[in-house]
Amino acid sequence: MTAVKATTGRVTRRRVRTRANLLDAAFAVFAAKGFGRASIEEVCEAAGYSRGAFYSNFGSLDELFFALYRERAGLIAEQVSAALALDGPDLDVTAAVDRVTEVLLLDRDWLVVKTDFLVHAARDPAVARTLLEHRARLRRAIADRLARARGRTALPAVLRDAEGAAHAVVAAYDGVTTQLLLDRDVEHARAWLGQLLTALLTDGGESP
Fold first, then answer.
1. Rounded to an integer, what distance in angstroms lies between the CA atom of residue 177 and that of residue 165?
2. 65 CB contacts (<8 Å, ≥6 apart)?
3. pTM of this structure
4. Considering only 5-14, 115-124, 183-192, which range has the smallest mean pLDDT?
């Protein structure tokens, strides 16, 4: 009985590792070629696995794509929450913005893959729900943090409340990263996003 359990544990760990490797390979392939042009064979070749290994983990390329998006998007939401939590009950807006912009921008490959997902979602309501769920989670992380700072950190009246401020933050991020996809200037995007978020959350009253 003990031997059987040990074997099962090894198989489970191997499968987890295989799945992770496939996701990493898919990220590289999707970033280079685009979701609509990539094939299962290319992902398998990049990961060093057979089609059998692929199908033991994912039912289709769509399923792998969703898993990849959920993994990366979930990580970003967690990182944003952690970055916003570092000030304790108070909120140093400028410092928090600096930390969040470092997390949100990540890298251009992620933005390319995310944009592919957005285009895919625009044509498929089921896919759109997946994207909307992530965006809602990210907004909640930001809104919850801003709400906890209420009374200590004033938000501009035009945003009305923490939820409105969270929508504005995500909208600013969308606009800046669209430009980043085209001009590839990460440092400029990071600086511009920081200035924009600081202005949004403080009525422009603090220096970026």
1. 18
2. 26, 30, 35, 117, 120
3. 0.70
4. 5-14
